[in-house]
Amino acid sequence: MAKRMLLMLVVAAAIIAGLGYFKLRQVQAAIKAGSSFQPPPEAVTTILVKQETWPSTLNVVGTMAAIHGVTVSADLPGTVEQIKFDSGKWVQAGEILVELDTRQERAQLAAMEAQRDLTKINYTRQQQLVNEGVISRSDYDKATAEQKQAEANAAEIRAAIARKTIRAPFSGELGIRQVNLGQYLAAGSPIVPLQSLSPIYVNFGVPQQVVGFVQVGHNVTITSDALPGTQFTGRVTAIDSIVDQTTRNVQVQATLANPQGKLRPGMFVQVDVGVGAKRSVIPLPASAINYAPFGDSVYIVTDVKGPNGQVYRGVRQQFVKVEGARGDQVGVVSGLNPGDEVVTAGVFKLRNGAAVAVNNKVQPANNPAPKLEDN
Asked: By C-alpha distance, which of 102, 112, 97, 109 is closest to 76?
């Protein structure tokens, strides 16, 4: 009985040992296969880079501002008697916009003019009498003062009547009317915005580091997403004398023609202003840059030697320095050489040494001056 038990244990141990050895061989084979496994190549697009010369420009956001822009308001209180303009129309300087009720002032003017005429007659009579020595000089001086005061009182009322006729202070385009016929207006009540649209200002800020490159008379180029395909050119006309303590920017003002009134006060625009000499860059599509806190990089396609000694088409990560942008492109100033084959799409799924398969049938946007309809 003991011999049979011992024999069974030996047989069981042999079976377990055989199974363990078989499993060990399977694991070793799997490890060997895993060590030589090469993941399938990632599909990417590439571009052969070349060097170009870009102007040293700074692209900033600017705000349009009217050279003359006000909200026309009532100078004196009164009731609107006539409205002589339409919203959104062009008006000339001095054109009547609104007339307020002046019946009371005109009645007062009639009384003052009657008083003025009386004092003038009295003054003429007193002048004759003083020449004849009938009255004293003091009586004549009193008549003279009364005559001048009557003239001044009448002139004051005429000025009040004129101030109740509200005119355009300059030529420009009206906004939306803010008053109605018969409405009572207090002093300072708004009537209608008025903006002079051509020429027009654009105000923008530049960093204090480059303000020395910006000079009065330099050209600036203005574009707006609201006006695709349209470009405006102006000149720097003023540079602020202080640096903003919050942004460390200096405000710059440029003036440009706006004959068709396409640019409006308050509109945001893109301003390109020159800040130095031209520089050599390697332009790349923005999609080629792998942005990261520790540095920007690109992937260069090259021959890579694998662990098994075989050479395959893979990528090498290369850190670069980026300065400036133009349309769909960014400018690389260091880290690349002309002729390098750089991945332009699919960088998010790559790692250093990854195998790639280049397919350039569809390329990412790479236009230095894209139009809205192309995007």
From this structure: 102
